[in-house]
Design brief:
about 300 residues; alpha/beta; Conserved Hypothetical Protein Ylqf, Chain: A, domain 2; 7 strands; P-loop_NTPase; GTP-bd_ortho_bundle_sf; G domain-containing protein; nucleotide-binding; GTP-binding
């Protein structure tokens, strides 16, 4: 059955067409370019960028992946760890910053990595300043705020939101721990200036790393439907009152709109005059479909 859904649910490719996705492929807002420059300048000022001149590799930093709602099932952790290890990442740590789970393990791990670094020469300066880097909307600010709650019992220091681009510049140092004294630098999310593969762009958009309107909510919803069917995640059927799984995104969005009362009045021009009819709001239904997935309400799916 899975192969059948995979073969039939390719409407998103037809929607994009041969030249589609140009906005996604070239999406590199000004705040990304500015943030990248600021991050590099900040590293240079703090003397933490010698490997660029010497051609050496920097000390490895931990990859603190935040397991957000709808990201991936726990059974996938070993597969993800193996894949990252093949890419050279040895210190991968999964956290849930909504529940502050496993956040306490980060400071000891970072402290050990810094102390074991060949460039660790800070006998007169005991504080550490760590830069948090990642793609947009992955939870960098949430991680900082979670660490402050756990170690300092303090509130938010970085603004968070469900859309990319909330952090638009490299911020000042934010203290996250007293002993050892540790500061973090929040940074804007950065993507590659060009995304060569349209499907990669759709995956990023579905996760909220690219603003929805640049791709199109209905295009993202179409890809989401294909993904759910491919992984046999059919919880959307009961949630939106469908009789059975469906690979027609228009039918699914119409059912969502009717089920949730998301309709609007549209003027139709006829030969006898204008007629006002009530029509399903497909865009609003697509937004509901996408946001439900991001909240984990349609099941957990690994896109890669």
């Amino acid at each position: 059955m899975r192969a059948g859904w995979a073969l039939r649910g390719l409407g998103w490719q037809e929607q994009l067409g041969g030249g589609g996705g140009r906005d996604v492929a070239r999406w590199f807002p000004g705040h990304m370019a500015k943030g990248t420059s600021q991050a590099e300048a900040s590293l240079a000022v703090r003397g933490e960028q010698p490997w660029r001149e010497e051609g050496e590799e920097p000390p490895e930093a931990p990859d603190c992946s935040e397991e957000r709602a709808g990201s991936f099932p726990g059974s996938q952790e070993s597969r993800i760890l193996k894949h990252l290890e093949q890419q050279g990442f040895r210190h991968v740590h999964f956290t849930d910053c909504l529940k502050d789970e496993n956040v306490k393990k980060i400071v000891p791990l970072v402290t050990e990595l810094i102390s074991n670094s060949q460039r660790y020469q800070r006998s007169e300066n005991v504080e550490s300043c760590i830069m948090v880097i990642g793609v947009p909307n992955v939870g960098k600010s949430s991680l900082i705020n979670s660490m402050r709650r756990v170690h300092l019992r303090k509130g938010k220091a970085s603004t968070v939101g469900g859309t990319p681009g909330i952090t638009r510049a490299v911020l000042t140092k934010i203290q996250v721990c007293e002993r050892p004294l540790m500061f973090l630098l929040d940074t804007p999310g950065v993507l590659s200036p060009q995304i060569e593969c349209v499907e990669t762009g759709l995956k990023l958009a579905l996760c909220g790393a690219i603003k929805d309107h640049l791709v199109g909510e209905e295009v993202i919803a179409n890809y989401l439907l294909y993904t759910l069917n491919h992984h046999q995640q059919f919880s959307y059927v009961e949630r939106y009152g469908l009789p059975n799984p469906c690979d027609n995104v228009e039918m699914v969005l119409k059912s969502i709109a009717i089920h949730l009362g998301k309709t609007h009045r549209v003027k139709v021009l006829t030969g006898t005059g204008d007629v006002i009819v009530t029509s399903p709001n497909y865009n609003a239904a697509a937004c509901e479909f996408i946001h439900s997935f991001r909240k984990g309400l349609l099941g957990k799916v690994t896109l890669d």
